[in-house]
Amino acid sequence: MSKVIYPGTFDPFTLGHLNILEKACNIFDEVVLAVAEYTGKESLFNLQERYELCKKATEHIPNVIVSTFRGLFVDYAKNQNCKIMIRGMRAVSDFEYEFSLAITNKKLNPEIETIFLVPSLKYMYLSSSTVRQLAELNGPLEDYVPACVADAMRKKYQG
Ligand code: COA
Q: What residue ranges line ligand 1, CB within 6 angstroms?
């Protein structure tokens, strides 16, 4: 059985992430959507909230398991008995960051492989920070995030 992990901070989980996840689910038997505790920046949603939103947004996909992890990805992957990481590659601007992440993981564990999937064109320039800004300024969110995420963002910003 083929199993891969799609990790991210998912703050929040966007339709772009969903697009990558659905592509991975069409290729592999099981995809673990792994929500990282460590975000490296101040996050909008805490780990539990990010986990719950990912779970709700993906409940229609049978071969997804939503999970959380603390610490290094390579350690989590080992615990999961999985050596393949999925990441989205949206544009050339993603390359350096994604390449550095893939190489660092490979240094930590040479058995880890990263597979990059390219999102559909309409999600190419979507990012979580753009969506956060839209939500903060009370803009429309429906084209960018799943409905449950849009609701949660509105609650967060507009109360
Ligand atoms: N569609 C839309 N947006 C996307 C996207 C897609 N397909 N792919 C990435 N993004 C955007 C996100 O919206 C986010 O945007 P922002 O910077 O504006 O907030 C950004 O790209 C990255 O977010 P995300 O996809 O959630 O991933 P990440 O880069 O936050 O996640 C981890 C990185 C969690 C995989 C990585 O840091 C990790 O493995 N951490 C654990 C610690 C570790 O082992 N580190 C590596 C060795 S030091």
A: 7-10, 14, 16-17, 20, 36, 38, 72-73, 88, 90, 101, 104, 119, 123, 126-129
